[in-house]
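Hey all, quick one. A colleague (J.T.) asked me to put the fe (ii) ion job into the tracker so the inputs and the structure tokens live in one place instead of scattered across chat threads. No bug as far as I know, just bookkeeping. Sequence used:
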Amino acid sequence: MADSASISDRQQAKKVRLGRGWEPWPEYEAAATGLMDYWYPVAWARALKKKPLPVKLCGRDLMLLRDEDGTARALHDRCVHRGVKLSLGKQWFPGTISCPYHGWTYRLRDGELVAVITDGPDSRMCNRAAVQAYPVEERLGLLWVFMGEAEPYPLNRQLPEELVQPPAFAMGGRIEERSGNWRLFAENGFDEGHAKYLHRTSIWRIMKVMPTWNLIHIEKHGRWLYRIEDERFWEAEFPGLGKWTNSRWWKIKPHIKQGRSLGNTGGARRNNPYIEAQNFPGFASLALPGILRIAYPNFIHYEFYVPIDESHTRYVGFMVQFKKGLSRLIFYLWYLTGIRWMFHGNFSGQDHWMVANTDAPPERLYRPDESLIEWRKLFAGPHPLREKP
Ligand code: FES
Ligand SMILES: [Fe+2]
């Protein structure tokens, strides 16, 4: 794994080399370890059992544990006495965690020091020290932590709108620690140029022709950026070089019906009515603090790029199908036997490979990078979620 100090040193050296003015997105640059005052999915809810779960988020060490009534809680993972990790400790008393070193015991609900085992019941330290507690919510089978000091707003405000009160649905996903900065993962996820080229060799796309190039534009609707395709070119003649196409005799070329297709996967006979009713202006959309939504005709794929520290990201990827009854089970089986390794493994692994190998800045951006430029502009605000009363 890349060393964060060496990455900063390298970027610092580049800044010096490039001189002033290379950095046109100061708020974006300042968010290397993540954006404060947002909810982040950090783990599957089922992974939190009786033992403390250490999680690093936005450069901070946290510890998650369940309260006496099963409510998930998060505390700063550092005992104020001598700095030992509380996640190494034990839950002797319901609703608390005791540090393994001298038994300082903190209440999970608010981080207050409520007992010091090795100083007796009359310890003068009680209620005179505390660790920071972070709000936690359980939704969609995930644990969400509000990172920041501000009063948290409801998680519903930040969830993709269609996931706030979805009809019956099935969901399958994967959480993985990856090397690379969270902003680069978000840029890659929304990147127009790479999808049809880098992923043409993925197993997920092996049977389908991918276009050679597209003309696109980006539209902002509320907090979401949408990538909208204006024109698609299946092949192209490069002067003096020849033709380039991804078309092969065994590949299917999707026939895109105007007004029917949600994007470059096209070809579905029927779109899921719930997805269709969302009227997404484009196939791919992106919002702060690093949420990618890819609307396929019959399911939606989400990626959350959760900052661990400057050079590591927690990839939280899941697919949701909005159907009832047996088809939910069929989708879940299809997820386990196909999508999980083809999409969340092989396909998404190509993205990880590229992000881990991205060495920018410096950079020279090209026409399809409008997607990336618009995303960087989001950091300057406004931040409607945080600012809404
Ligand atoms: S370091 Fe935690 S109790 Fe002493
Ligand atoms: Fe990709």
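Adding what we noticed when we looked at it: Confidence is low (pLDDT under 50) at residues 1-5, 16-21, 257-265. Residues 79, 81-82, 84, 99, 101-104 surround FE2/S2 (inorganic) cluster (ligand 1) (CB under 6 Å).
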